Amino acid sequence: LPDFCLKARAENTIKQYRYAFNNFCKWCKKYQPAVTPLPASDFHLSMYIIHLTKNGNSATNIQSVCHAISWAHSMAGVKDPCESDLVKLVKEGAIRETSRPIIKKEPVLPEHLIRLIDIFANDNCSLADLRIACMCIVAYAGFLRFSELSQLQRQDIKIFQDHMIISRKVKLTNTNMGATFASHELILKPVQSTF
């Protein structure tokens, strides 16, 4: 039975939950016998969240800890302290306290690409410089992340007189039964080949 319960989550999720819950257990051990990790009281869990906040943990880490503690209580079949209003309020306050404002990056404009081409694709450039320029143009035109761009293979690209087609496989889901893939074709019109 425990093995099947553990298989309800991905292996890496389980590792992360165990690590976070073990840290909570270590914190509780400092204050035993008054503080127990399982079942944990909502007051003690709130104090732990405050402790994490004061020690500089990120909002994501605090949320992860709450998920881990909730998971451990669910696995043990005991009342989840994360469901209490006190813990929810303290968690929200901790997340607000530790959150940093999102600073969006400036978008890349066509003018930037023109300057990039002038620098890296001139008459005196090397093959490596041409590669950089080409990668930037393809990534920009195809809305590709670097990870997607770097995984392209020669057989994924077909170049025509007035366009280029990139056929690549994209991972959609990942289950214990295997991965599901779908093929996507990307047709780039800004490409003008010279034959």
From TrEMBL:
InterPro entries found in the cross-reference section: DNA_brk_join_enz, Integrase-like_cat_sf, Integrase_recombinase_N, Phage_Integrase-like_Recomb
Keywords on record: DNA recombination, DNA-binding
An annotated GO BP: DNA integration
Protein's UniProt name: Uncharacterized protein
Top-rank taxon: Eukaryota
One MF annotation (Gene Ontology) recorded for this entry: DNA binding
Coiled-coil regions listed: none
PANTHER family listed in its UniProt record: DNA ADENINE METHYLTRANSFERASE, PHAGE_INTEGRASE DOMAIN-CONTAINING PROTEIN
